[in-house]
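FAQ: What does a ligand-bound record look like?

Like this one, built around NAP:
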Amino acid sequence: MSPGTDSGGRRVAVVTGASSGIGEALARRLTADGWHCVLVARREERLRELSGALGCEYEVCDVSDREAVGRAAAAIVARHPAVHLLVNNAGIPGRATFITATPEQINAVTGVNYLGGVWMLRALLPALERATPSSVVNVASVAGTVAVPTSGPYSASKAAQIAFSRAVCAELKPTGIKVLTVMPGFVETEGFPQRGFLPGLLSKAVVDPDYIAQKILKGIASGRRELITPGWYRLATIGQWLMPWLVYRIVSTRFMLSRDSF
Ligand SMILES: NC(=O)c1ccc[n+]([C@@H]2O[C@H](COP(=O)([O-])OP(=O)(O)OC[C@H]3O[C@@H](n4cnc5c(N)ncnc54)[C@H](OP(=O)(O)O)[C@@H]3O)[C@@H](O)[C@H]2O)c1
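The answer part, i.e. the structure of the complex:
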């Protein structure tokens, strides 16, 4: 835990998975836009450095540990009774199939990518209610809409996260808390080094975390409920619904089955 800082009247944002990648980019953009951020992740050294640079706060917390989430949320709410934005972004790759993954790997992707956001939202709900109109952003993935066999447990965790996000979007409507489900395509980050992993032309479609951070901020400002970004990934999602046989043929080719997983 970092020493509490006064938000100085600024809106308060809690960003999970803020020690690198999309979460870090978002924390930088939010701070530049005048938000006061509370960064959440496990690597304290990273959080200390970034929060020092941004003049914000941090909480060390494993979001898959429900009790740890409760403790972190209580510490945040003690300093900031009203939270205007929660970004559930913490996530890990699966890097295995449903057949090859260990039970621990399957538990871990489910616990972090899906349940982490559920525990965080429940723990911070009173603070979000105090701040209405407030927002929740759940960073899911296009992989939650199209299942890739080499990353089955990861896809399943993201599909569950999308269902969670859509359900609470409707449930929380009367409270004045807006929920945005974000489904990014390939993004180059520490946990997901896509450029080295994707073949030829596909690697050119990889974007940087700041691109996604900008899109998320625009999505919050315009009150969107869902965001697939970059937009052309909608083709994959639509293809899955309209032509599941074609997607099946593509993902079960020898080429696709021989790819590494994420
Ligand atoms: N990169 C992509 O291609 C891509 C595409 C679609 C969606 N996404 C999603 O985007 C989100 C951010 O990922 P990223 O690409 O920015 O990767 P990243 O740079 O590896 O960031 C992941 C963040 O999550 C944190 N984290 C991991 N496990 C955690 C845990 N148990 N408790 C708390 N924090 C935890 C990490 O920090 P610590 O290690 O310090 O805990 C890190 O800050 C993830 O949900 C990912 O699934 C990524």
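Follow-up question: can I read anything off the structure? Yes, for example: The beta strands are 12-16, 36-41, 57-60, 85-88, 134-139, 177-184, 226-229.
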